[in-house]
Each structure stands twice: as structure tokens, then as C-alpha cells.
Amino acid sequence: MTKTLQKSASSPQLNANVEWVNGTAFWTFYVTIVLALWLCLSILVPIGLAWTYANLIHNAVSFYLLHWKKGTPVYYDQGKYDHLTFWEQIDGGSQFTSNKKFFTIIPIAIFIIATNSSDFREQPLLLNLVSLLAVLIAKMPQMHTVRIFGINK
Amino acid sequence: MASTTTTTGTETVQGRRHQGPEAGVWLERKRSLGDQAEAKAAVPASSLLHNPGDAGGPRPRLAAAPRQPPAKVPARRTHQEEFAEVLNPMRQSLIYLGWVLLMQIGRVRDFLDRFFGLHAAGSAGKGGVPPIVSDSQDFYTRRLYMRIVDIFNRPITSAPGAWIDVAERRREGDPCREHPTPTGRTRRCLNLGSYNYLGFAANDAYCTPKVVEELRRSGASTCSPGADAGRTEGHVEMEQVVAGFLGVEKAFVYGMGFATNAFTIPTLCSKGCLVLSDEMNHKSIVDGVKLSGASVKVFRHNDVRHLEYLLRKSIVEGQSRTGRQWRKILIVVEGIYSMEGEMVRLSEIVRLKKKYGAYLYLDEAHSIGALGATGRGVCEQQGVSPRDVDVMMGTFTKSFGSCGGYIAGSAALVDYVRAASPASYHATAMSPPAARQIVASLTVISGRDGSDRGGEKLARLRQNANYFRAELMRRGFHVLGDMDSPVVPIMCYYAAKIPALSRMCLERNLAVVLVGFPATALCLSRMRICISASHTREELENAVEIIDEIGDRCMIKYIGERKAARLATDEVGGNRDTRLVSSKSI
């Protein structure tokens, strides 16, 4: 099995905005970024709440980048993907791909670690849960191109 | 004709770092290495049993059937495999991090600009008109492209021969929106960026007087489309000469190379047709296919098995909603892919198209006049008959020093295209001096002018290209492309190295073209060098030294020199265990 730059022998990705997500090192890079975020936070905030902060910041940033920002920075797409968020552009819009599963598992994993490290106290648990639900609902296949109340149409 | 990625002989590399092999000797060595490999591989397996101590050959396989044809030299690795080896996870992560930082810094600057009101946001419309583009639409242009815009769009002030005058510029005004302005000074640089494969871009002793004479006789423009009043004797002669050169029945010429693809494909295909297009096809093909309304399926670059899979699947399933048969299936490939420098697998694709009854459209923009013993393109290079290619397309901008493109093939095809293409009715016919340049350059290339300048040019181009590619590979650069291809891409991968390399090269009077995202993939930026027959060996040697120094400073020697030498022996010896990557480069 020959090594290639894409994770598997997938069909050609024509959307230049998202084809780099299929690179072999992208998952490693993403996990490293999350860990780096936690490291920085553990210097600044009480250690028990570091993962909670990491969870909230990660969910806020990833929600904005994956589910709010639409379109591509590539000018010659001629607006083909202007109505699609990054999440909807990944893998050509197909659901249940390994990339999408990875993106779904990461917030769940961070949530579990955060609630464990804050000893399941009510306030952090509630905040973590709400931000997790926001991010998870946005990733559901039923929400593909759904804009609630026309927000961000 | 085995095409291996590295072809330096082992004897030349060890211990003699700065002496590149002479091209003629080197070519002989390449052939002899290839012959050795074939000789070794052709030895029947049974005789290997009698020489168990024979080291260096393929491992003896006891069960090998002697009836099998002799194994070819091991198939060359695809670029994707090479990228995967060079780009380990740490390098990929650093490249991603670089792009993330650039985007975030751009966002922060946009926010600060808006907060402090320093620069007018967007192209603010005057008098209640909405802006042409919103801030987010041209974010990439303003905050990434314009940061390094001094390496793009450099104005030139001379003909693009082997040497070129590049205008110096300085930045003033809004850095996000204003292009640099020329200062009036120019810099004479070695031209490694122009498509000047045979050296016809500059003054030519045979062609230029004829062009000037034609300009005086027929004027600068025909002022009419071909079907109306724009078709002169010069055009008729040009099309006959082109058809004769390519070995086909007829040819039809457009005034613009991009438009040749963009308007011929819609003429040939429409709704209900299927176009199978290579992943790395040029934008003109992509636009032509979009314009035609045909269905399109993209196959992985040069991957003949994927193409066959798509062919079989499409024929079996038919059109998408109705399941009806496709009206026709057109496979579109290029001769040389300009960003990869590699050639198409033409004989295999021709075999496929005959097997499944598809048509083949070959875009020889970069390969016509540059490949093949007599310059007849990739068909000659790979031993494929031009009759097997249904639609031959090419441009005159690269090897012939003119403008425009052609569609060539059978008389029925060309007559139909002439009758149905919008260029005949709506596009002004080619300028007569440009047509004359085409005839003159083809006369020189085919030797009909009575001299052997054409053959010399072709040989010099091939030698220059092979020398340059082999020398850079020997020094440890990751160079793409096949042997004999005049396009030499050197990988630099990182976004920040793009402007660094370009600016350093310009300081040393080398004019090179760097490309990055979105023209290439995010992680795969490169320096694309175009070799010309008008470059002398000395100029190329100097260029190699300069690129060597700059490459050391920018750390783009991803393949270490010892590993490059070992790779050469690997291809022959069959040892696949070596790792490709040098630890010297970040």
C-alpha cells in the first residue's frame, strides 16, 4: 500500500479550501493545537478549570470557523461555495466520513476530560454541556445547510 | 525510454561534488544504466539459482514463471508518493500552522483597521452604491496575496529571450490594495520563467524579418472573424503547415490559446456527454467543460486505473438520472502538466479509449515543439500515432513564440469545429504577423529552411532540461517531472519560502516564477522553472549555483545529496528500504 499525501485513496478533492483537511498530518496537528491551548491555559487559570476553559474556547472558535464562516478565500471558485460553511464543504458534503467523525469526537473527548477534571461541579458542567450541545447539533447530518430562523443565511 | 526520476550515475556523484557530468556523457550513462537494469531484470529466474552469491540483482523468485515477459525497470514513483515521504507530520503541521498564523494575523489587522478607521473598508461604494466586494470576499487577496505581491506581476521591459529586463518597483500607498509602482530602473535577469522552450521569443534571424514583412503587407490585425473577412492566405498556409507538422489531416487555429480549450470543448460536448478530466487539468479545460454543460468526472492525476474504473462505472450506469447511454465520452488530458512537469501516460490511455470506445482530447500546450526527437510533441516522445488521438490541441505561445492555439485531427472533425466554433464567427482572426511567425518557426523546427537550426534547438533544449533537472536533483532539491520535460518544478512546500526564494533570486538576477495556494495545493508550493534552448550551458551552471546557495539558505533541499545518489542506485538495484528525507532541512 503506497503512502500518499491524502489519508486514503479518495477521489480528487476539487475544493481547494478544504482539501488540506484530508492531509495525513491534519489530525495530529489539530490534537496538538488543542493540547497547546490547554497548556497555555493551565498557566493562566486554576488547574482544575483549565480543561473547562479549553473546552469553551475550543468550542467557540471551532463553531465560528466550521459552522459560521461561509465561502472560500479562493477567488476563482466564483462563489460556488459561498452559501456553504466549512463543515458543509468538507468531503464534498458527504456525511459520516472519517474527517467528520474525528471533528465530532474531539469536542466530546474534551468535554469528558473537562468534566472529570472539574469534579462534576454543577456550574462548569452546565457550561461545558451547553457548549458541547451547540457544537454537536451543528454537526448533525440533519443540519446540513439548515439555517435556524434564517440566521447566517 | 524508461523514464526514471533520478538518473545520475553512481560513479559521478561520490567524491566529485561540484563537477556535474557532461550532458552527452550523462545521457549515455543514463541509457547504459537503464540497459543494465533491463538486462538484469531480463535474466530468467532459473539462472539466478546458479549464482546465489550474485548481489545487487532482484531477489531470485523460485516460483517465477519463465514465460513472463522480462520485467521492466521498476515503475517510477508518483509525485504523491514522493510528497508523502518528504512531508512528515511535523512538516505538514508546521505548514498548516504557517497558514493559520497568516490568516489570523490578517483577521487581526482587518479588525484593527476597522476599529481605528485607518483604511477604507472594502471598496466602499460612493453615493450609496454597495461595494464591489465585501471585506470577506477579498480577504485572501488583501491580506495574503498583497503581502507578497512584489513577487507577482513583475513588468518586463524587453522581449522574453534568454535574458529579460525586469522593471524594479517600490511599494507606496495602501499596502492592501495598491500594486507596487515601477521606479523606472530595470534589472537584467536570466529568464527562467518564460515559456520560451525553443528560443523563438526573442529576435530570430529567420522568423523576425518575415514577421515584419508580413506586418507591413497585411497590417497588425485582420479586423474581422475568420468566417467573415478575416481569413487570409497566410491563415490558410498556417493551418496547412500546422496539420502537416503534426501528421494529421487538417487544423483549425484560434487567436487565443485559453479560448481554444474554452470554446472547442463546448463545441464538441454538450448535455448528455461525459468528460473524464485529469485532476490537474488547466483552468481553460475546466472552464470549457463547465461551459459545455456536459457531465464531468475527475480522475486522479495520471492514474490510469482510476480512469478505467470511472470509464467502466460510467458506461455501466449511464447518465445520472435517466440511466441512458452517454452520447459520447471524452477523455481530456494534457501532454505536459505545467505545474508537475510530468507527462501523460499516453499509450495506456489510448489503449483504454480504444477498449471502451471513448474519444481522446490531448492538450499539448507545453509539449508541442518541446518533446520528441523532431518536436512533434508527446505522441512522438511516447511512440503513439497521432491518428490515435481524436482531438489534438496545442498552443503557439510556448515553443513557437507566437499567440493562439490549434485544434487538429481528422478532416471531418476540423471541418465541424470550423463550422460550429464561436471563434469562426465572433472572434477576430489571428493577427497576420503572428500567423507568419508560426509558419516561420515551424519551418525552422522541421528543417525546411535548409538549415539544421531546428534540430539543434530541440537537442539543446533536451540537453539543457535534463542537465538542469539532474544537477538540481543531485544537489538534493526535490524536483518534479519527467526526464526530457522542459518544465522543472522545485518544491518549497512552506508558504513563507515563496516570497523569500523569489526575492533572493531576483537580487541575484534570476527571474523565476513561484506558485502557491490556491494555484497549487495548500502544502505544495513550488518554484516552476522553464528551460529554454537559448540558455547556454554556462548560464544554467551559474543558475544552478545560485539556486543551490539560495536553497541552502531557505532550506529547501528536502532530499539529501547522499540520499539522492542512493535513490539513483535504488532504481537500478531494487532496494526499496531507504528513506528519502534528509534531516538537514526543517
Automatic annotation (TrEMBL), chain A:
Which residues belong to the signal peptide in this entry? Answer: none
Q: Where are the transmembrane segments?
A: 27-54
UniProt keyword annotation of rRNA-binding present: no
Give the Pfam families listed for this entry: ORMDL (PF04061)
Topology class, membrane: Multi-pass membrane protein
Q: Give the subcellular location.
A: Membrane
UniProt main location, coarse:
membrane
Q: Which domain of life is it from?
A: Eukaryota
Keywords of this entry: Membrane, Transmembrane, Transmembrane helix
GO annotation, cellular component aspect: endoplasmic reticulum membrane
Q: Does the keyword Transmembrane helix apply?
A: yes
Q: Which PANTHER family match?
A: ORMDL PROTEINS
Q: What is this protein called?
A: ORMDL domain-containing protein
Organism of origin is: Chloropicon roscoffensis
Upper lineage is:
Eukaryota, Viridiplantae, Chlorophyta, Chloropicophyceae, Chloropicales
From TrEMBL, chain B:
What is this enzyme's catalytic activity, as reactions?
L-serine + hexadecanoyl-CoA + H(+) = 3-oxosphinganine + CO2 + CoA
Q: What class of enzyme is it?
A: transferase
Per its UniProt record, the required cofactor names are: pyridoxal 5'-phosphate
Which EC number(s) are documented for this chain? Answer: 2.3.1.50
Q: Region Disordered: which residues?
A: 1-74
What the entry lists under PROSITE patterns is as follows:
AA_TRANSFER_CLASS_2
Extract the CDD domains matched here: KBL_like
Q: Which GO terms describe its biological process?
A: ceramide biosynthetic process; sphingosine biosynthetic process
* An MF annotation (GO) of this entry: pyridoxal phosphate binding
Q: Which UniProt keywords apply?
A: Lipid metabolism, Pyridoxal phosphate, Sphingolipid metabolism, Transferase
The Low complexity compositionally biased stretches are 1-12, 57-66
Short name of one Pfam family: Aminotran_1_2
- Where does this protein act, in terms of pathway? Sphingolipid metabolism; Lipid metabolism; sphingolipid metabolism
What is this protein's name? Answer: serine C-palmitoyltransferase
Source organism per UniProt: Chloropicon roscoffensis
